Amino acid sequence: MSGPDRRGYLVAVLAAAAFAALAHDGRDREGDAEELPPAEPVRVEIPVIGVRAPVMPVGRSPDGTVQVPPLHQAHRVGWYRYGPAPGSRGSAVLLGHYDDLHGPAVFHRLGRVRRGDVVRIERRDGRTAVFAVESVERVPKSRFPARKVYGPVDHAGLRLVTCGGSYDRRRRTYRDNVIVYARLTAAR
Amino acid sequence: MPASAPRPAWESRRADGGAVPAVLSSCDLTGGNVRVRTIVAGTAATAAALLAAPPAQAERAVVDPEPGRFEIDPSSAKPDETVTVRGRCERPGDETMRITSHALRAEEIELDSDGGFNRAATVRRTQPGRYTVTVICQPSKVSYTEVFYVHRWPDRRETVTYPKPEAVPYPKGAPQTGGGGAQGDGRDRPSLPLLLLPAALAGAAGAVTLARSRVRA
Lengths: 188, 217
Prior knowledge:
- The structure holds two protein chains of two kinds.
- By secondary structure, chain A is an alpha+beta fold.
- Helix content of chain A is 17%, strand content 38%.
- An eight-stranded mixed β-barrel of chain A has the order 1-2-3-4-7-8-6-5.
- Chain B is an alpha+beta fold.
- Among the domains of chain B are: 50 residues, no CATH class; 93 residues, Macroglobulin (MG2) domain (Immunoglobulin-like, Sandwich), CATH 2.60.40.1930.
- Chain B has a five-stranded mixed beta sheet, with no helix packed on it. Chain B has a four-stranded antiparallel beta sheet with strand order 3-5-9-7, with no helix packed on it.
- Classes of the chains: A alpha+beta, B alpha+beta.
- The interface between A and B is large, with 65 and 40 residues.
């Protein structure tokens, strides 16, 4: 093979490799499933940390803060009912306790979830929305990213929220929140 | 009143720097200009109050109802759609609630610690019209009734069941999902070695003192 032919061959190989890489990237981005119509979530499953818990709707307290499941039902997860349903376009928010007065609660191990882990939400319409974790972060409660958690997104997103960090005994609260961001990848 | 003194809320500032009461008092009847200004000030205050009212009502619209009352959101829907029934049983000792209605179907649920409930219910496949929905608190059997409207089905012109997310402001602050701190009590306490350090130092000092006394003996 002569010099110019070899260069042409290399250029073709590199172009093919670049195209393959772009095509692969495109498939990743096309991994979102078709969004689902609104329906109340009834159960959440996070297999990697052994969570399988019932979901109850929660709203807002008179002081404007989001409600959470009552402490005597710390095994339940709350769905913020003024936001989208899991599987519908937007940021669906689920809240679970880190612990109660006696020990670990439903989202105690949420901080161990990692990118790529699966979260399944069973809905009242019989459909199951499957999400893949995109990121996990721990933020001080004083800088809770409300817009990032509750704000609009261009896909069917899911946010799982619990407490984390050290415990402030004077204020009787944990200092941080653990937030898991996920997006819909399949619907059954 | 000195210009620097703090003014009560019911006073508004006059053009010349003086204070004009927003409320018409007997001394205002002596001068026409003062009366006009007073009426204008009162009207302005009323308008400001009216303008300020809608956001406050919008905020209250998403706050859960008081004990003994409940609401259905939305108050009308089509068959097979889901609505939320939420409120509070006011009798102490109530543990569960159930819904009886020809329009809505829902399972019996446990109340939260405050007697509150927040329950999704499905609209039955029934004729369109006005229906009553009764919530019965158990075991007191105290009941509350609201009105619910079933729309014709299917009807594409009806409104959607769920509120648009952007229609409701984000909740304030951070979620208080920390529970009782059962897993965090020890985190702010000094660690065990630090707690034992004074005892260890005292013991060491005692041992040294004892050794010295034995050497002298």
